[in-house]
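Moderator note: this is an archived Q&A kept for reference. The question asked for a predicted structure of one protein chain; the sequence and the answer are reproduced below.
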Amino acid sequence: MKYSCFLFIILTIIQVPMAADVYGQSWKFAKEKDGIKIYTRDELNSPLKSYRGEITFKADITKVNLLVGNADNLDWWDKNISNVRIIEFQKDKLIRYYLVYHVPWPLSNRDLVLESKITTDPVTLARTVFSKPLINVVPESKDLVRIKKYWQKWTVLPMKNGFIHVTIEGFVDPNGNVPAWLYNTTVTETPFNVLKTLRERALSDKPAKG
């Protein structure tokens, strides 16, 4: 149970506001629930699977883009993030930040340094937020396990009649002694919970900053 909880914490890092060249196999359908479709994929040179989630809903596209790719909107992120430090923020272009995740004892807390690049297709108006680790920016701590193998990609695509299609893809190696079989049994929860939370937040009365 502790391992499973730890994996959920690490995997939901994707609530942030990420694949460069994604070296993997074809996506395989895993499940569909509450209008959210989930896929997984084998990754080359890794026993760990990557994940993909898709959802379509009607909402304010400006608000969704602010929730996904703006450093001012962190309130809907994982509650187990114990520390967030913005290193650099260029609106609609770039976010660099440092995260610390609290995980259940006896496992060590994890930290991660990320760079998220934000682009918008001039034709489709699809907004993409792609994140990867930053190296040698924040010194490693002996009390934390640094996550170094990670990527995540958000795509927010406006559709007709006010609908939005949101896709999230990602991969994370939590580092340390986490069994691959256990990781792979929980990996589908990551995109499902993230997209469900995003939809709830986007449809709520609470405005997004920016």
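Archived answer notes: The longest strand covers residues 110-120.
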